[in-house]
Amino acid sequence: MTAPWLPLMLLVVLFVGLAGWIGLRRHDARPVALGAARRQLWLILPRLPPALLAAECALRLLPEGALAQWLGEGSGWRGLALATAVGVGVPGGPAVALPIAWALLSGGAAVSVVVAFVTAWSLIAVHRAMLFEWPLMGASWTLRRMLLSLPLPLLAGAAAGALTQLSGA
């Protein structure tokens, strides 16, 4: 298992490297980039604690053992299909979906199921398709794209399950 701070450190190194590269190439871009980063931080930061709290509270409302039964290691394709269906229907951005994924994972859901959930939310979320794709791209295109994307969360979850078994984690 990797250290929990490792992804954050990688992002910090990447950010510092990109900021340095931009600073060397375009001195006028530095204040614009810092201002945009500051605005984005203040937009996301207040949303995370309530989202994490809500996800944890929702997890506690489930009957004891229900999460492990429906979404645990032994749930198989049924768990992947359920996670895909839930991921397709979860509205909102990453501040909503990722705390739910975290709560599922910490509550005993299988890694494969959480991968299916996040992949479904990322690729097929109905709320985004109805609000943005359908009006811009048309119904036929949107429905075709959604149907073609439907097997992908199941495949990603199955692959994550296989990788988990191979690595023994």
Primary descriptors:
10 helices; 0% strand; mainly alpha; 169 residues; single chain
Topology:
Elements: H1 6-25, H2 29-44, H3 48-61, H4 66-71, H5 76-89, H6 94-106, H7 111-124, H8 126-137, H9 139-149, H10 151-167
Helix pairs in contact: 3-6, 5-7, 5-10, 6-7, 7-10, 8-9
Describe it.
- With 169 residues, the chain is mainly α.
- It folds into two domains: 1-48, no CATH class; 62-167, no CATH class.
- It contains ten helices and no strands.
- The radius of gyration is 19 Å and the shape is globular.
- The mean pLDDT is 85.
- What fraction of the residues are assigned to beta strands by DSSP? under 5%
Overall geometry: globular
Low-confidence stretches: none
Structural class: mainly alpha
Largest sheet: none
How far the N terminus sits from the C terminus, by CA atoms, comes to 7 Å
Q: What is the mean pLDDT? A: 85
Number of strands: 0
Order of helices and strands: HHHHHHHHHH
Overview in brief:
The protein is an all-alpha fold and 169 residues long.
